[in-house]
Specification:
The protein is globular. The protein has 4 helices and 7 strands. The longest helix is centred in the C-terminal third of the chain and has 29 residues. It is of the alpha+beta class. Strand 3 and strand 4 form a beta hairpin. The chain has a single domain, classed as Alpha-D-Glucose-1,6-Bisphosphate, Chain A, domain 4 (2-Layer Sandwich).
Length: 148
C-alpha cells in the first residue's frame, strides 16, 4: 500500500438549487470568500490556477489545478492537480429534493517530502484534517449562498 495515496469522498447537502451550487463551485477564484481553508486562488488562464490550502494542521499545501471537464448539463466539474499533491478531483452536482447534493471525489498522491515521511503515523491525522476542511467548506458554501 502506498501510504501517501488518498481517496476521498464527501457529500454536501446544500439548501440551494443545483444551478446555483454549480455556479458557485465553478468560480474557484471565489473559494477563499466562503471556504476558510482555501487561502488563495491565483488564476493563471481560463482553465488553470494555483491554489494554496491550509486546514487545522500547521502546514499549507500549494498545487496547480487544471480544468479537465466543465459540464453544466451533467453537473460535473473536474480538475487535475500537480504540486504538493498530484491527482484529480471532481464535483458532481445533482438535485436532492428542494436542494442540492454536491458529491466531491478526490484521488491524490502527496508529494511534499515532509508529509511523505510522516505518511504512516500521520495518516489518521491527515484524513481527519481533510474531513474538517470539507465540513467547513460545506458550511461556508451554504452560508455564502444564503447571504446571496
Amino acid at each position: 500500500m502506498d501510504w501517501s495515496h488518498y481517496r476521498f469522498l464527501s457529500l454536501w447537502s446544500v439548501p440551494a438549487p443545483p444551478a446555483v451550487v454549480y455556479g458557485a463551485l465553478e468560480r474557484a477564484e471565489d473559494y477563499p470568500r466562503w471556504w476558510p481553508q482555501v487561502r488563495s486562488v491565483t488564476r493563471l488562464d481560463d482553465t488553470t490556477g494555483v491554489f494554496t490550502i491550509r486546514s487545522v494542521l500547521p502546514y499549507a499545501m500549494t498545487f496547480t489545478a487544471r480544468e479537465e471537464r466543465r459540464d453544466p448539463a451533467a453537473g460535473v466539474l473536474e480538475i487535475t492537480m500537480s504540486g504538493d499533491i498530484d491527482g484529480w478531483a471532481r464535483w458532481t452536482v445533482t438535485a436532492d429534493g428542494p436542494g442540492t447534493l454536491a458529491r466531491y471525489e478526490q484521488a491524490v498522491d502527496v508529494t511534499r517530502p515532509l508529509l511523505r515521511r510522516l505518511a504512516v503515523p500521520g495518516r489518521p491525522v491527515f484524513r481527519a484534517n481533510h474531513r474538517l476542511m470539507m465540513r467547513a467548506g460545506r458550511q461556508g458554501l451554504a452560508a455564502y449562498l444564503e447571504a446571496g
